[in-house]
Write a structure and sequence with these properties.
With 521 residues, this protein is an alpha/beta fold. It has 17 helices and six strands. Strands 1, 2, 3, 4, 5 and 6 form a six-stranded mixed sheet that branches. The N and C termini lie far apart (174 Å). The relative contact order is 0.05.
């Protein structure tokens, strides 16, 4: 058997500690201690490592390449150093700071991101300087520089675009054009928001105000449609007043207000009156909202007249009169003042006539309430002295029905007088006319003296034109007395005729008694 002898290696070897692994002779001890070292199987019979070791991962200790890689905030520099954990920490920190920046969008957040960028870049430079300076590689520098330049260029362009959008928003706000503000801010995407969060946040604030203004404009318009809703008008104006606390939105508020005012007058004059009355009642604040007074002065007079005419046509004379009078009180210099005066006069007459008719219409065969509560109708004919004045005659139909129709008016518009005739009472006797003796055949007591009296009727006369009482007297109707035969009634025992009896009147006697009333003013 051939035998091969080997010489003993006199090189001293360190005895591995219990639990440690042997280091192959051709592997640097520093590399073997890293996480990337290949495990070595020292139990091989021939001392050969198994499995075969992979070549160690190449590390770049070029400070400039590492610093440029870290400047991308993507952990590239740490990866060049083989520090995966640090690369993950850099990216995670950058993501966290950017998230805070997007959420808070305050200047200190940008400084925090800048500080993290400087810190990690400097830290990568520091770690690379501690390594083997012979690993300098110009290619890695170019790759790191290109990546970082792409990141910075992207951020710069996005910030430039965000600044341009912000400028468009600012100019649109200065013009008061909220529609343009929204259109410009719609161009802000995630990239612009990421690159310049404070600018995006400022744009968001402008958009929020513009949306409030657009909402207030909608409320004002809704308040004008259908039944006028003054609560929506109040809500809209409260929003405008609140936005005006920021002077830079004055023009936007003015444009919103102008859009509302252009809706006036409305198709309904009475709705326009409600709106202008509400606007006129607002307190003066010495700001842009006070321009509503100009629109009110231009719109209200015509709306008041038109609404009053419409109410007059619906026989709502009281409300019509109020509107006519409102125009005369609030806008005395208006060109419609004369029309309002005439309308007020017509409404007043209509109200008077309605009142008179109401009080005359509840007579029911007796005296109407007018006789105790008279009212005037200014357009009634004036009572003339010495002429027969047509009258409305009420009460005591037994006698008044015998008066000539030519004395009577068929409506209050044609009557000069209102004659209220009371009932004839048995105890109310007129003047004595004649006394005559009567003897009843079966009467107790023999001859009876009977005195005949005129018929007494209480009468009140009112001048309808003024509603004043012009006559309050007792009318006495004359007639024949002492008839040959006297008829009377008695109960059980006949004591003869009563001692006082009325005369026997004729139609001519009745007319003669009442004629002086209608021939007086």
């Amino acid at each position: 058997m051939n035998r091969e002898e080997t010489a003993m290696d006199d090189t001293p070897h360190a005895t591995p500690e219990p639990g440690s692994r042997p280091v192959p002779p051709d592997v640097d001890e520093h590399d073997a201690s890293s996480d990337d070292a290949v495990p070595y199987d020292a139990t091989s019979e021939w001392g050969t490592p198994w499995p075969p070791p992979r070549p160690p991962r190449k590390r770049v200790y070029d400070p400039l390449a590492v610093a440029l890689g870290n400047a991308s905030l993507l952990g590239v520099g740490y990866l060049l150093l083989g520090r995966r954990l640090l690369a993950l920490v850099q990216v995670a920190g950058a993501v966290a700071l950017v998230a805070v920046l997007l959420d808070r969008a305050e200047p200190w957040c940008e400084f925090a991101v800048l500080g993290w960028w400087l810190l990690t870049t400097a830290h990568g430079w520091y770690l690379a300087r501690r390594g083997d300076p012979r690993t300098t590689a110009r290619g890695y520098r170019l790759v790191a520089a290109g990546l970082t330049l792409a990141v910075l260029l992207t951020v710069g362009l996005l910030r430039l675009d965000a600044a341009g959008i912000e400028d468009d928003v600012t100019r649109a706000r200065a013009r008061g054009d909220c529609a343009a503000v929204l259109a410009a801010h719609d161009q802000v995407g995630f990239g612009q928001r990421l690159a310049d969060a404070p600018a995006a946040e400022r744009g968001d604030a402008v958009v929020e105000v513009c949306r409030r203004l657009l909402s207030s404009g909608d409320e004002l318009n809704y308040g004008l449609h259908g039944d006028v809703d003054t609560r929506k008008l109040a809500s809209g104006f409260n929003t405008l007043s609140d936005v005006l606390k920021q002077p830079e939105y004055t023009e936007a508020v003015a444009r919103t207000l102008d859009g509302f005012l252009r809706s006036l007058p409305l198709s309904s004059a009475c709705d326009t009156v409600r709106v202008t009355d509400w606007l006129r009642a607002r307190k003066t604040r010495h700001d842009v909202l006070d321009r509503v007074s100009t629109t009110v002065r231009r719109t209200a007079p015509e709306a008041l007249v038109d609404c009053a005419e419409a109410l007059h046509g619906r026989e709502e004379w009281g409300q019509a009169l109020d509107l006519y009078q409102q125009l005369l009180d609030q806008y005395p210099e208006s060109s419609l003042s004369d029309q309002a005066r005439k309308g007020a006069h017509r409404a007043t007459l209509a109200i008077e006539l309605a009142t008179v008719r109401e009080r005359l219409g509840d007579a029911y065969g007796g005296q109407p309430s007018y006789c105790s509560k008279p009212a005037k109708y200014s357009a009634a004919p004036k009572a003339r002295e010495g002429a027969t004045n047509r009258a409305l005659i009420y009460g005591n139909d037994e006698y008044t029905d015998r008066l000539p129709k030519s004395w009577r008016a068929d409506d209050a518009t044609r009557a000069a007088l209102v004659v209220c005739v009371g009932e004839t009472e048995a105890d109310d006797r007129g003047s004595a006319v004649r006394t005559c003796p009567y003897q009843a055949k079966n009467a107790v007591g023999g001859v009876k003296q009977v005195t005949f009296h005129k018929i007494a009727i209480p009468v009140k006369v009112y001048a309808l034109r003024t509603g004043q009482l012009v006559a309050d007297r007792t009318v006495e109707i004359g007639g024949t007395s002492c008839p040959r035969w006297l008829r009377y009634e008695y109960y059980l025992t006949d004591f003869g005729p009563p001692s006082d009896m009325p005369v026997k009147e004729t139609t001519a006697d009745v007319r003669a008694a009442f004629e002086p009333l209608v021939r007086r003013g």
